[in-house]
Design goal:
mainly alpha, Tetracycline Repressor, domain 2, 14 helices
């Protein structure tokens, strides 16, 4: 494989730092703003969900992460395809094949998460409602995220920016901002207009089948589908821990509403940093091999990225204070969170680099497994971090 310069013209430390602050920071700030749309909806409806649809809390971390994983991995594959000249536009057949494959690969993990919730809480009418809502949202959001991923990847590349530095964070944040409100309002849709809801879900299924039929799959697509679906199913089992922990400590978290508002932002932002590290490592490995990880540019990227964590950590807490007050609760800065956030990100970024490297060494395409793995690990660590903060704040 011929060595390829991933980001031509960005050889100096100052240039790497400039790209991080001019490209990556605005993307992360946009992600942060998007996250609080979902965070506000979750905070406002957290008590209702915990009381009426507790199974949704078990599924929620895995569901949000699953969508970010699926389309984050797609973004990583698209970046590599762009560098190799395989993709030219959003409407390419390659894009359609990747979108349909991404939607299909999420079905088994969704079933695993739902079954785990039923095993813990028992089968009930609300459990059936959650299942139907999850299926409907998976299809609707899958179509939106699939082509959003293609757009977010292709257009920055055309403008000369490195898609790895912005695509994965943006698409995982778009997934979060769509996922939580969609789930909540589809529940209301199901309760108020059940027959219309059934027709709507059936139409989405028909559209998905048409997309599958019109897609042209090659061996590389089948390989990617196998790798992604297998990894996501395993990670779905891991996400059960996050969801179960969130549901078990929902009473504690509901006493500190600001943490339920911050929860999507914490998980997403930590996952964003880790996914950038994983995507950058993955692209370098696929284009230039392991020698590319010894270059100074690679370490410059990682250090510059880590330098953004105090900014994102403080803004996460600062914005959460105002969103929490906006929905009718009191809130203030949590300095334990602000000081601990950079360390949490550092650990997860290191995991991102390591996972991509290990996958490559075992002849597994890191584009397919690195981002899903590190964002899942970020979810687990982020959930434990939130629970620890909640227990500290309520004194228990």
């Amino acid at each position: 494989m011929l060595p390829v310069e991933v980001s031509p013209g960005m050889s100096g430390w100052r240039e790497r730092l400039r790209q991080t602050f001019l490209v990556t920071l605005p993307a992360l700030l946009l992600c942060l703003a998007l996250d609080f749309v979902g965070g506000g909806v979750l905070g406002k409806n957290f008590e209702m969900i915990a009381t009426t649809y507790p199974l949704l809390l078990i599924i929620l971390p895995g569901l949000s992460d699953l969508r970010g994983n699926v389309f984050g991995a797609m973004a990583s594959r698209m970046t590599t395809a762009l560098h190799l000249g395989k993709v030219k536009g959003v409407l390419d057949k390659e894009v359609t094949a990747n979108v349909s494959m991404a939607i299909g690969s999420s079905k088994i993990p969704l079933l695993v998460l739902w079954v785990a919730g039923v095993v813990k809480l028992g089968f009930s009418h609300s459990a059936l409602a959650v299942f139907l809502v999850v299926i409907a949202s998976a299809l609707v959001i899958g179509f939106l995220l699939g082509y959003s991923t293609a757009f977010i990847t292709i257009f920055p590349y055309r403008w000369g920016a490195d898609p790895d530095m912005i695509a994965a964070p943006l698409i995982t944040s778009v997934a979060d901002v769509i996922t939580i409100p969609t789930l909540v309002y589809l529940i209301f849709f199901y309760e108020d207009y059940p027959r219309v809801f059934y027709v709507f879900t059936a139409l989405m299924l028909i559209l998905f089948v048409i997309m599958i039929i019109s897609s042209s799959y090659r061996k590389e697509h089948l390989r990617a589908f196998k790798e992604v679906s297998s990894v996501l199913t395993i990670l779905g089992l891991v996400e059960i821990f996050s969801g179960s922990t969130l549901e078990s400590y929902s009473g504690v978290i509901s006493k500190t509403i600001i943490l339920s508002v911050m929860y999507p932002s914490i998980l997403d932002s930590v996952g964003n940093f880790a996914s950038i590290a994983a995507a950058t490592t993955s692209t370098r490995l696929n284009l230039s091999g392991t020698e590319s990880l010894k270059e100074g540019n690679f370490y410059s990227d990682m250090v510059a990225l880590l330098g953004l964590t105090p900014i994102i950590g403080f803004l996460t807490n600062f914005i959460a204070v105002h969103v929490t007050r906006l929905i009718g609760y009191s809130a203030s800065l949590i300095w334990t969170f602000i000081l601990g956030y950079p360390l949490l990100v550092l650990v997860n970024m290191s995991v991102g680099v390591l996972v991509a490297y290990v996958a490559y060494r075992f002849s597994i395409d890191p584009d397919n497994v690195a981002i899903p793995t590190v964002t899942t690990i970020s979810d687990v660590m982020g959930t434990l971090f939130v629970v620890l903060l909640a227990k500290m704040m309520v004194g228990g």
